Amino acid sequence: MEYDTIAYLYPHKDENALKAIKADPRHKPPRLERRRTRYSRGERESTEPPENQGASALDYLPYLEITFSDIPRTDRGLIFGSNPNCDVVLDDEGISNVHFSLAFDEFNRPFVKDLKSLMGTQVTYNGEGKGVRRDF
To answer: Domain FHA, which positions (predicted)?
Structure first.
């Protein structure tokens, strides 16, 4: 992780979220590409071990890298949503006008707050999370 990096944002299992991430000019390509091997119907190959055994499923997804250089313009932190006035515009179906914020608490720890979005927000930290939630 770079010293300027605050968080990486990945699309949820939804084509709209994937399109919204890719539409942002700050999006980054997946860190790893899946290797595709095609066999004919008559061939039966043995199961190959994963190419990158320590890789996360997130390594195969595009993402947004949020940095300290992305200075929050409000006291609510960095605002994400489909509204053109948001700090990070994710203009696609399923993204609320003002969807969520990324801010810091009094101890300078980052936190995500869902801003009463219709579809909810999922937060994962070190591979653990509680699924999609709303208004937290």
So the answer is: 78-124
What residue spans define the domains of the chain? 5-31+48-130
Query: Class of 5-31+48-130 per CATH?
Result: mainly beta
Closest CA to 58 of 30, 33, 35, 24: 30
pLDDT at residue 15, rounded to an integer: 79
| Stated length of the chain | 136
3-state secondary structure of 102: strand
Two structure tokens written together for 39:
């066999």
pLDDT surpasses 80 at 99 = yes
Q: pTM score, two decimals?
A: 0.66
Res 54 pLDDT > 70: yes
Q: Which helix (H) or strand (E) holds 16?
A: helix 15-23
